[in-house]
Structure formats: structure tokens, C-alpha cells
């Protein structure tokens, strides 16, 4: 059985109302992190940037505006399956992307076949994987502490 689902979609990076350009975005879902999806944006001239957020947030955002904090997802036409706006924010910096709903739905359908929505907790070793991940995060030296000496 496959342990992950990947897809590449083209999204529009909306720089302003007059300027946008198409970029490839890799979508990834892994059984070891069943609640999350990863979107890796390949911006020209920059290193790829990966954002991780809830699979359910992406699913909900296709149909209605949702998201608190740094990630907001909303359909461009709420009454029909249309394009989706994904707004990412770090501090005062924001980036807005537009993606077709159909490739996102196809990706989410594949993730649902791997781990049905609502059954993430039923994975046999989810608790142990979570504990291991938290242990790695808490035991990793902070970047500032490494650079302080």
C-alpha cells in the first residue's frame, strides 16, 4: 500500500490585480502525518517554499471561505465549484494564489482513499508517530542557540 499521495498543479501567483504568473505547486499527503497536506511552491528565482496545513482546511476551503491565522482558503465563486484562492501570510507579508478546484478535489479524493477523512486517528501507530515527532521537535536544538556560541 502506498504511504503517500503526490500531485503537481499549476497555480497563479497573484502579485497584484494587474500582474500574475503561473507556478508549479507540489501537493503531498503522507500517512505518517494524516491530518496535514503539504504545498511546495516553486517560485522563479527562489528556493521552494513548503507550507503545511490541515487537509480538512483545504477541503472546506474549496466550498466556503475558511481559515484563521496564516492560511485562508476560499472559493472564487461560492455558489459553484470554481477556482480557489489560497492566501498565505507571515507577519505583514502576504501571498495570494489561485488554483483550479478540480485538481485539488482530485488530490483530496486520492488522500481520502488512502486515509478516509475522519479515520486518521484509527491508524495503528498514529499515537506513536505523534509522540516520536514531538520528541524530535522538543529535543532539537534551537537555531538561535546554535548560532549564539
Strand content: 35-45%
- Low-confidence residue ranges: 142-149
Helix content: 25-40%
Number of alpha- plus pi-helical segments: 4
- Main β-sheet description: 7 strands, antiparallel
Q: End-to-end distance, in Å? A: 46 Å
Strand order of the largest sheet: 4-3-2-1-7-6-5
Tell me the total number of β-strands.
7
User: What's the overall geometry?
Assistant: globular
* Structural class by helix and strand composition: alpha+beta
Task: Give me the strand/helix succession.
Answer: EEEEHEEEHHH
**Mean model confidence by pLDDT:** 85
Integer-rounded radius of gyration: 17 Å
Briefly characterize the structure:
By secondary structure, this protein is of the alpha+beta class. It is built from 4 helices and 7 strands.
Helices and strands in order, then pairings?
Layout: E1 4-14, E2 20-30, E3 36-41, E4 49-54, H1 55-63, E5 71-75, E6 83-90, E7 93-100, H2 101-114, H3 126-139, H4 143-148
Antiparallel strand pairs: 1-2, 1-7, 2-3, 3-4, 5-6, 6-7
Helix pairs in contact: 1-2
Give descriptors for this structure.
149 residues; 37% strand; disordered C terminus; 4 helices; 7 strands; alpha+beta
How would you describe what is shown here?
With 149 residues, this protein is of the alpha+beta class. It is 29% helix and 37% strand. The chain contains four helices and seven strands; from the N terminus they run ββββαβββααα. The chain has helices at 55-63, 101-114, 126-139, 143-148, and strands at 4-14, 20-30, 36-41, 49-54, 71-75, 83-90, 93-100. Strands 4-3-2-1-7-6-5 form a seven-stranded antiparallel sheet, sandwiched between helices. A hairpin with a 7-residue loop joins strand 3 and strand 4.
Amino acid at each position: 500500500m502506498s504511504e503517500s499521495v503526490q500531485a503537481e498543479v499549476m497555480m497563479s501567483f497573484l502579485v497584484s490585480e494587474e500582474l500574475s504568473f503561473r507556478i508549479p505547486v507540489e501537493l503531498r499527503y503522507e500517512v505518517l502525518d494524516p491530518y496535514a497536506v503539504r504545498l511546495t511552491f516553486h517560485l522563479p528565482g527562489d528556493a521552494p517554499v513548503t507550507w503545511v496545513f490541515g487537509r480538512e482546511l483545504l477541503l472546506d476551503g474549496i466550498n466556503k471561505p475558511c481559515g484563521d491565522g496564516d492560511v485562508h482558503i476560499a472559493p472564487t465563486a461560492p455558489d459553484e465549484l470554481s477556482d480557489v484562492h489560497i492566501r498565505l501570510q507571515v507577519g505583514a507579508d502576504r501571498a495570494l494564489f489561485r488554483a483550479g478546484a478540480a485538481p485539488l478535489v482530485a488530490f483530496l479524493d486520492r488522500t481520502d482513499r488512502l486515509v478516509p477523512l475522519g479515520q486518521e486517528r484509527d491508524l495503528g501507530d498514529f499515537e506513536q508517530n505523534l509522540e516520536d515527532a514531538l520528541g524530535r521537535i522538543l529535543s532539537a536544538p534551537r537555531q538561535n542557540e546554535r548560532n549564539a556560541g
